[in-house]
Amino acid sequence: MNLRQLFSIRQTPQSQAIPGTNQVLNEAGAKRIVVTCAHCYNTLANEYPQVGGHYEVVHHTTLLARLVADKRLTPVQRVDAAVTYHDPCYLGRHNGVYTPPRELLGALPGVTMTEMPRHGEKSFCCGAGGARMWVEEKLGTRINLNRTSEAVAPGAARIAVGCPFCKVMLSDGVNKFVESEVSPLAGGTAQIEVVDGQLPLRIAPDPDPQQRGARRRRDDQ
């Protein structure tokens, strides 16, 4: 028996709600679902099909990166800051989505991308994927503090994430460091911001009707 069989969603109480959700989505004619949560991405893309839900699931960073590349969204202001990107476990290591978030951030004028030592396929969890958000750890260092210390080390002014759980964990880590007397952020002397999808973009001018029609047909495919 493999791990997928051992931990099949069919064996969990939560799975009882999935067929009902599938029915609602199917009745609505849903073909493509855009999500802002890495955990939702993994569940909808990999677990819903096990009980009859087959959709194209797109993470919002992938969609935004595509729209920027197609010049349908345009950055509206410079972001003169060093930015590091934290790979959410359920977006990166579980589903292989690494490039679009970085392309999106790199499209912003003035951004200097920095990478943490552990990134991409070798990234490190923020803790919420293992439910550490609700656990009072009494041994060692809290996992989110471990990850936050790695994020601020390269001198980044912004930590970009692609998951609300990651944002909570890393924001908590930044706040703990600001309150600490021995951390690099002690006393709030350094301003570090954790951002998730808060990108200054605007809709690009609409092309002529013929181009717009061709674009819609391509999107519907």
Short description:
The protein is α/β, with parallel strands linked by helices.
Explain what you see:
The protein has 221 residues and is of the alpha/beta class. It has two domains: 3-62, no CATH class; 74-195, 3-Layer(aba) Sandwich (Rossmann fold), CATH 3.40.50. It has eight helices and eight strands, in the order H-H-E-H-E-H-E-E-H-E-H-E-H-E-E-H. The chain has helices spanning 3-6, 18-27, 38-47, 60-69, 99-106, 143-152, 164-179, 209-220; strands spanning 32-35, 56-59, 73-75, 81-85, 111-114, 158-160, 193-195, 201-203. Helix 4 crosses helix 5 (99-106) and helix 6 crosses helix 7. The longest helix has 16 residues, at 164-179.
How do the helices and strands line up, and which of them pair or pack?
Layout: H1 3-6, H2 18-27, E1 32-35, H3 38-47, E2 56-59, H4 60-69, E3 73-75, E4 81-85, H5 99-106, E5 111-114, H6 143-152, E6 158-160, H7 164-179, E7 193-195, E8 201-203, H8 209-220
Parallel strand pairs: 1-2, 4-5, 4-6, 6-7
Antiparallel strand pairs: 3-8
